[in-house]
């Protein structure tokens, strides 16, 4: 299976199984071999490469040295499934793990999945992750591709720009009347309750700085899911930044109003994916680029 | 501040700061004392209690022995803020951390936040967590309360039943025509693509067992966010279980149909919260019980 390569494929599979399952015993059960066989294979692989590959803990983790090998294991596994499919004429058991940031998953991304030829993919395995974590998941091979706001290529990956999401600052008319009316905006925003998605969500703070040129510290509610975030604004809990496509119907109908009209925050997005000659990954990349062209600003 | 108790409050605050910030140095910055003062306080507290309280690592973590103390620190902090507020006549700086399962956050829960008297809370800090993790967050004091499917009380917490969420199996009419029509349901469901929320989401599998009396292994797509999960079903990617209140309009309009009419899965939910004589927590509990009475089956 790995002819021509310098790494034993059984050892490689065993290494990936230990990391996936978290322990030598669980890997042994999955591979239907004895724990001592697992241990021997790992030791052989480690002495072959002259590196400790696994931190023996609960759970067992890859060392920094092991990460490149872990990605190799995932890449080989994808290419094997595709080769078998090409031989047999049908795709079986291919899971396609992809990380997507929350707002993209809640917005323009989903149609891309429908646009991948059905015969190519058995199962999409999406993860909702912010960009910091996506890079790590790409690096260690947990995901094959990611939508991320980070343009710096992860080693071994290609990067394609997707376009920009534009975020507008919005609140209900009642909220605006209660908290913002009749005084300068920069002053009002110092007291007006604000929503954030999580502690890493700096969109609201970026708008505050744009509008007020100061660092403000208003009361903050954290609502860590895109749908509930939008609904919490609609209920009047606070103001927050919502993607223009999502918020457009509410603005048009007057259910929401802009807090700082004419101000916005743009977030450029990127598609990072493994440099692999994989038909599935190429088809998904094409579909994601089409969905982004339809749903994002260029 | 902790008169009558056997633990020095400065030592307790320092311990909580180390866990919150992840290191002695960061705790020193937050508390505006020197790292060696942090170290001295922690050593004094550990020798006072005869237990190692902190695993010195990156990040620093509480030991099992330290967890009860961590919860004490959070509880004292809440009661202090409330006492100060009672004296000064206004609540300042109170963050109320609460864990909520994804479907509740996406459904009946949010109105409860609006129903807590505004003068009681400065900031809601919601976390979207599944029930396993919620118990841990309650135990170590990261959250004060949680909506969970787990009726077993976490030590030191009260449990109140909230009602049941009912999940129906749904798909688009086109999907049903393509995958389910013209053959026995149990046979069709073995091949028909199915959506799950994450690897712990057993709702679909529970319905499969109810309907087919067998363990099936259909193709599975993972869509880990409630809104996108519903939209992916609406796009025809697969069938899945959606909460009846969320899916009702789509069923009424014929945009979705039931996959296994007459079958459903009920999930009872519970409110777990610290046993504390706290006005804020009592007010939130009342509001959550009212929202549940309005939005859940009894």
Write up what this structure looks like.
Two copies of one chain form a homodimer. Helix content of chain A is 45%, strand content 19%. Among the domains of chain A are: 1-90, Winged helix-like DNA-binding domain superfamily/Winged helix DNA-binding domain (Arc Repressor Mutant, subunit A); 165-267, Periplasmic binding protein-like II (D-Maltodextrin-Binding Protein, domain 2), CATH 3.40.190. The first copy, chain A, is of the alpha/beta class. Chain A has helices spanning 9-21, 24-31, 35-49, 64-88, 102-105, 110-114, 131-139, 173-179, 185-188, 203-212, 226-234, 244-252, 279-295; strands at 54-55, 61-62, 95-100, 123-128, 145-148, 157-171, 194-196, 220-222, 240-243, 257-258, 264-274. The longest helix of chain A has 25 residues, at 64-88. In chain A, strand 7, helix 10 and strand 8 form a beta-alpha-beta unit. Chain A contains 13 helices and eleven strands. Chain A is elongated. In chain A, the strands form three sheets. In chain A, strands 3, 4, 5, 6, 9, 10 and 11 form a seven-stranded mixed beta sheet that branches. A two-stranded antiparallel sheet of chain A has the order 1-2. In chain A, strands 7-8 form a two-stranded parallel ribbon.
How would you sum up this structure in a few lines?
Two copies of one chain form a homodimer. The first copy, chain A, contains 13 helices and eleven strands.
SSE ordering of chain A: HHHEEHEHHEHEEHHEHEHEHEEH
Oligomer: homodimer
Largest sheet of chain A: 7 strands, mixed
Average pLDDT for all residues of chain A: 88
Protein name (chains A, B): HTH-type transcriptional regulator LysG
Domain HTH lysR-type (chains A, B): 7-63
InterPro entries (chains A, B): ArgP, LTTR, LysR_HTH_N, LysR_subst-bd, WH-like_DNA-bd_sf, WH_DNA-bd_sf
Keywords (chains A, B): Activator, DNA-binding, Repressor, Transcription, Transcription regulation
């Amino acid at each position: 299976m790995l002819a021509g390569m310098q790494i034993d494929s059984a050892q490689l599979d065993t290494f990936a199984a230990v990391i996936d399952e978290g322990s030598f015993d669980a890997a042994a059960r999955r591979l239907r071999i004895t724990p001592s066989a697992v241990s021997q294979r790992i030791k052989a692989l480690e002495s072959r490469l002259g590196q400790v590959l696994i931190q023996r803990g609960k759970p067992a983790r890859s060392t920094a040295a092991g990460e490149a090998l872990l990605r190799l294991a995932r890449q080989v596994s994808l290419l094997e499934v595709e080769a078998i499919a090409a031989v047999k004429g049908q795709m079986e058991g291919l899971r396609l793990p992809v990380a997507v940031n929350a707002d993209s998953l809640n917005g323009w991304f989903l149609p891309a999945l429908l646009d991948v030829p059905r015969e190519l993919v058995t199962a999409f395995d999406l993860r909702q992750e912010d960009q910091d974590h996506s890079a790590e998941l790409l690096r260690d091979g947990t995901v094959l591709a990611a939508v991320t706001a980070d343009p710096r290529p992860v080693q071994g990956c290609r990067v394609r720009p997707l376009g920009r999401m534009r975020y507008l600052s919005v609140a209900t008319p009642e909220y605006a009347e209660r908290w913002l009316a009749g005084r300068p905006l920069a002053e009002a925003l110092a007291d007006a309750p604000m929503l954030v998605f999580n502690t890493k969500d700096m969109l609201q703070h970026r708008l505050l700085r744009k509008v007020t040129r100061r660092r403000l510290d208003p009361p903050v509610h954290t609502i860590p899911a895109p749908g509930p975030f939008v609904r919490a604004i609609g209920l009047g809990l606070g103001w927050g930044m919502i993607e223009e496509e999502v918020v457009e119907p509410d603005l048009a109908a007057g259910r929401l109003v802009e807090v700082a009209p004419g101000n916005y925050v743009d977030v450029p997005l990127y598609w990072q994916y493994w440099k692999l000659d994989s038909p599935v990954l190429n088809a998904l990349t094409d579909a994601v680029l089409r969905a982004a062209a339809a749903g994002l600003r260029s």
